[in-house]
Amino acid sequence: MNDSRELILNTSLRLFLQKSFKEVTMKEIVTETGMSKGAFYHYFSSKEQVFEEVINFFYGDVMAVKYGSFPKDSLRAFYNEYIAHIERQMKTAKYAMGADFTTNHYMLIFDGLRMLPHFREEHTERQKEEMKAWTDIVRIARKKGEIKSDMTDSQIAKMFIYSGDGVGINFIMSDSLHKAAREIHPLWDGLYNMLKG
């Protein structure tokens, strides 16, 4: 991606997060980038096109989770790498948009889900990939004797996924997401130790 295009996407993302899709104008985006109208319109012809690219760039590239790169030999190693990965993503996102995660991220996601049918489909696929990755590592951990529990692999996977989501939402609502990893780590350690039973 070239620098001008990335500048437009990062600037637009910041504006969409500060306000909302409806409140941001093309004129405002152009002004905030510091580009001429001609240079800007070389890349994008409408606010809707910018918004779609922002959603694709931020949630498809910057915030994508590559579960295949996580350790496959231990549930504990898997979730530790997951936490480290999320911390790296938050730093990358903060650098890209110049701000921490806020409740406006949910508004951006909801706008994306409402306006972009392909985003809803991609979001659903990402949820399936997440569930499969967690279920697979739980199955491996069970076979290796790392965990012992009467809960199904799927139930255990959901415990990790939903508790992580809940902690994230809780801290976003209080504008302190940077504390989430410090909270989720001991929570997941406790869950893991309970499952070792």
TrEMBL record:
Looking at the record, the residues that make up the HTH tetR-type domain are: 2-62
What InterPro entries does its record include? Homeodomain-like_sf, HTH_TetR, Tet_transcr_reg_TetR-rel_C_sf
Which positions make up the DNA-binding region? 25-44
Q: Keyword Transcription on this protein?
A: yes
Q: What top-level branch of life does the organism fall under? A: Bacteria
**Is Transcription regulation one of the keywords UniProt gives this record?**
yes
Q: Which Pfam families match?
A: TetR_N (PF00440)
- Keyword field: DNA-binding, Transcription, Transcription regulation
Give the protein's recorded name: TetR/AcrR family transcriptional regulator
Organism equals Chitinophaga hostae
